[in-house]
From TrEMBL:
This is Retinol dehydrogenase 14. The gene is LOC103726584. Belongs to the short-chain dehydrogenases/reductases (SDR) family. The keyword NADP applies. PANTHER family: PHOSPHATIDYLINOSITOL-GLYCAN BIOSYNTHESIS CLASS F PROTEIN-RELATED (PTHR43157), RETINOL DEHYDROGENASE 14 (PTHR43157:SF72). It comes from Nannospalax galili.
Length: 334
């Protein structure tokens, strides 16, 4: 009995040490941090959607540290102001120079609810009036497997926020991106795109709703949109690339119910195996700032490397049809 207990304790201790070592080592993602160049983004203006939490927040922190003027497009001003305050405090504590408009680094909070086309239009209207340039647009915000809900304009929430809101946002900012070229668009998708399809006959999921399928469909739409946009932007010096961040410990799972008893185990596993937001944000930061991807467009990345897509994500006729329907849905074409 005593021997069995000792073996069990040793096994538990060994497991815990292994997990801790794995966590401390990290999943081996390249930590680029601007290649050690703290002024890589000086003079550049970056818009990040959903910048108050998770990957968007980590991306904002790093691009701010690299000297960018970062505009946080967030749906809740209070949450965004709180995140902005924390980011500035963390920057000060890290010993980086205080961002100020003169040096280039600056943090600006603006309201943007991607579940409302009028909010997207208001955000872009204000931005176009106030900003003389836009160097990088990062379409990062996302909703994951929420119960059936509709946006203000009557779209299924995940398709509405993850795809349609960003579709309108990008189109309204294209003129400024073109006049600021060379400029970049970075789209955050997910590997889960593999389980989605663009079912044109029920884009609002009124006939049936499956929350996993709808998330995957919206992330497939992100990829098809990026590739079609890259095709349309050829020769403009505006690039667009799409990425998957891996599995990252963020607030994305807010709609997933994990039973109370299982939660400690889930927390342990996610602590050990999921990426931190900073690790997960590396590919967004890379595509937004690295000279290595200058002029590269229409590609799909993970862990700062190009990856292959399934044929359904490269289907040009589906991408064109989705573009045309999206234009009508967001009111760009009547
Ligand atoms: N975490 C992962 O493992 C993972 C894996 C693959 C892909 N992704 C993708 O990564 C992106 C970032 O997600 P995350 O993991 O960082 O999750 P997160 O911590 O939940 O961040 C999502 C952000 O999107 C914002 N958002 C949600 N609905 C919005 C709306 N209607 N208008 C404007 N902003 C809205 C959220 O704002 P509030 O804070 O106000 O809700 C939050 O700032 C998403 O596109 C997600 O699909 C994440």
């Amino acid at each position: 009995m005593a021997v069995a207990t000792a073996v069990a304790l040793l096994a538990a201790l060994g497991g815990a040490l292994w997990l801790a070592a794995r966590r401390l080592k990290g999943p081996g993602v390249r930590q680029l941090h601007g290649g050690g160049n703290p002024s890589l983004m000086h003079g550049k203006t970056v818009v990040i959607t959903g910048a108050n939490s998770g990957l968007g927040r980590a991306t904002a922190a790093e691009l701010l540290r690299l000297g960018a003027r970062v505009i946080m497009g967030c749906r809740d001003r209070a949450r965004a102001e709180e995140a902005a305050g924390q980011l500035l405090r963390e920057l000060r504590q890290s010993g980086s120079p205080e961002p100020d408009a003169g040096a280039g680094g600056e943090l600006v909070v603006k309201e943007l609810d991607l579940a409302s086309l009028s909010s997207v239009r208001a955000f872009c209207g204000e931005l176009l009036q106030e900003e003389s340039r836009l160097d990088v647009l990062i379409n990062n915000a996302g909703v994951f497997q929420c119960p059936y809900m509709k946006t203000e304009d009557g779209f299924e929430m995940q398709f509405g926020v993850n795809h349609l809101g960003h579709f309108l946002l990008t189109n309204l900012l294209l003129g400024l991106l073109k006049s600021s070229a060379p400029s970049r668009i970075v789209v955050v998708s997910s590997k889960l795109y593999k389980y989605g399809d663009i079912n044109f006959e029920d884009l609002n999921s009124e006939q049936s709703y499956n929350k996993s399928f709808c998330y995957s469909r919206s992330k497939l739409a992100n990829i098809l949109f990026s590739r079609e946009l890259a095709r349309r932007l050829e020769g403009t010096n505006v690039t667009v690339n799409v990425l998957h961040p891996g599995i990252v410990r963020t607030n994305l799972g807010r709609h997933i119910h994990i039973p109370l008893l299982v939660r400690p185990l889930f927390n342990l596993v996610s602590w050990a195996f999921f990426k931190t937001p900073l690790e997960g944000a590396q590919t967004s930061i890379y595509l937004a700032s690295s000279p290595e991807v200058e002029g590269v467009s229409g590609r799909y990345f993970g862990d700062c490397k190009e990856e292959e897509l399934l044929p359904k994500a490269m289907d040009e006729s589906v991408a064109r049809k989705l573009w045309d329907i999206s234009e009508v849905m967001v009111g760009m074409l009547k």
